[in-house]
Amino acid sequence: MIIELPLLILLVVTAGGAIMVKDLISAVFILGSYSFVLALVWASLGAVDVAFVEAVVGAGLATVFFLLTLFGTTEKDTHIRRPPVPWSALLGLPVLGLLLLYGAGDLPAFGDITSAASIYISPEYLENSVEQTRTPNVVTSVLMDYRSFDTFIETIVIFTAGIACALILRKGGS
Amino acid sequence: MTWLAIFLIVLGLFFLVVGSIGMLRLPDVFSRAHALSLTDSLGAILVLAGLAVYEGFNMNFLRILVVLVLIYLLNPVISHATIRAAYRSGLRPTDKESR
Amino acid sequence: MRIFAGFALFVLWLVLSASYNILHMATGAVVASMVVWLSPTGAPHVRRFSWLAALMYVPWLIGRILKSGFHVSRLILDPALPIAPELVRHKTKLSSDGELVVLGNSITLTPGTITVEVAPGELIVHALDVASCEELKSGLFDDRVGRLFSVKGDKK
Amino acid sequence: MNTFFFVVLTIITVLMLVYFYRVVRGPSVFDRVLGLNGISTKAIVLLVLIGTMFERVDMFVDISTGYALLNLVGALAIAKFLEERGASSK
Prior knowledge:
Chain B has 99 residues and is mostly helical. Chain B has helices at 2-25, 29-55, 59-88; one strand at residues 97-98. Chain B has 3 helices and 1 strand, in the order H-H-H-E. In chain B, helix 1 packs antiparallel against helix 2. Chain C is built from 6 helices and 3 strands. Chain D is mainly α. Chain D has one domain. Chain D has 3 helices and no strands. In chain D, helix 2 runs antiparallel to helix 3 (57-85). The interface between B and D is large, with 45 and 45 residues.
């Protein structure tokens, strides 16, 4: 779809800028603008809920949290010196990117009704979700019933990360 | 109706472009905030008004109007807060301070 | 005033939700009354608010914004960039919170002037050039906002 | 009409790039904040524009309302912090 093209270019530019810039505070702001553009891309793909979460978490919360963290540091810490990029990365990453692009050529078009994902399992979920799970929202039933183990382990990961953060940041620890 | 919408959107685009040029040309934070206020209060609002007119007078018209009023009320607060932070943290415009 | 605020919130809910069955409308009514009930009483100290003046004020402000918008656009597009930014201390008779909010917001919304600091009776305003500065100093805004809150003779 | 909207979308995207330049280069930290505010205003407009192109304005307007409100909260928080930290931070 051609609508996303300008947004995608802007997305690549902002992502590159966030990596290339030398100063961490400007990196935070660039990351904020990156989130805005990413949310626009999600919205233009029709994934409005993801766009909303991206705007809330990426552009709003993350920027404020990053800034809070940076204000706890000194001037010396926020200016980063990057080591020179190794040759292997310079050679290998473009090849990897080209391979990925080559592989992406075989993917079905966005919203293609004859693609495997649309024929094989999605209709079954859509048709049977109400009588099988008694949940009116299909997204919820896919997340919490059909893929419940996946979601369960994701939740475990987040919970573990939360516990680790609490242990590290705890006051008065030895 | 469509022509009115196109006229409003093009007018808004003009102000957006001018705001961006101002963002590049003007010398310090305080003057750049003026360019941003041009963008916010005229460019965005005219484009939104054009879209609302294009939608025609139904529920969506009212909803776009809600967004428009929100921008109208909130964006001055944002630019005022930013500029006040700049002023309080010791930045001064390059030119004189009078009276 | 509080009943009016609740009603305004309910109308906003109706516009945004656009589903008019009994469940959604009841939820909207409950939420609107909850918000009004939870928000602090004793709304900003406003002496009197004239709706007629408010109806007059909005088109006037839009016209004002368009006019100074074209003015500032000419300044920016001029190759010589003839700006003369300066900070102005702007004395005003308006002192209550509501008046100051409307005044400061209008000044910021008008291209060419931005409110920097607000204190009762005094605003620090950054003006982009002499014309915007003169316009501010003529006390036009104070007059208009004063009329909004029906305070007579506030012209400086 | 959709072609016209697409042209508008492209122009606004290019303008976002200009503001992005201000975010990257802006000498003081407040320039970056201003640039971010400009980008977010344009994102709100673009959301409504995309909604109009998809003929689903009702759905997209809700998000841009949320955007506008969250943008206010975020910008106020940033301004509050910067007020304390001061212009020393570049």
